[in-house]
Design a protein that fits this description.
This protein has 164 residues and is mostly helical. The chain has one domain. Helix content is 82%, strand content 0%. Helix 2 runs antiparallel to helix 5. The chain is elongated, with a radius of gyration of 19 Å. It starts with a helix and ends with a helix.
């Protein structure tokens, strides 16, 4: 009886999960991607600004680190779950590339459009404010991309199948 009840609850949970809106999944995938991107982006900006690099070098480092951390956010749980690194890497590339690309284009465009944001220096509110704003705009830009990918069974839908 108890086992039957647990099975019924599990079925109910699965159905509820399947009914979870595409938008909810897209928000989750976008937050996931943004977390990795933000870590790389902030690290790159901090390093570039701290060393007094020019905008191009700073943005290049930020983008490289954003991709690295963005992919890692998808890769680590899959590899930790026992998936072969090569398969996990393929899934991460397939699910995250478009989302990270959109995020990075928007993110860096916003930072570069704000006069003096990168020259303001690390203690500056302008630097951190512009970075926060750029990540918020990037989230809004990447959300429909992730939703569209999920609706086509691509993007994080590929990864989602392996998380359970």
């Amino acid at each position: 009886m108890a086992r039957d009840h647990a099975h019924h609850q599990h079925e109910h949970h699965v159905i509820a999960e399947e009914k979870a809106s595409l938008t909810g999944l897209a928000v989750s995938a976008t937050i996931h991607c943004l977390t990795g991107c933000a870590i790389g982006e902030v690290l790159g900006m901090v390093i570039g600004v701290a060393f007094g690099w020019g905008n191009i070098a700073t943005v290049a480092l930020s983008v490289a680190l954003a991709f690295l951390f963005g992919y890692s956010m998808t890769l680590w749980p899959l590899v930790a779950g026992g998936m072969a690194f090569r398969m996990a890497a393929g899934l991460a590339l397939a699910s995250d590339t478009l989302s990270i690309t959109v995020m990075e284009i928007v993110d860096n465009a916003v930072v570069l459009m704000i006069p003096g944001a990168l020259d303001a220096g690390l203690p500056s509110l302008l630097f951190w404010g512009s970075l926060a704003l750029s990540l918020a705009v990037a989230f809004v830009a990447a959300l429909p991309v992730n939703r569209w990918l999920l609706s086509k069974g691509r993007g994080h839908a590929l990864v989602h199948a392996h998380h359970h």
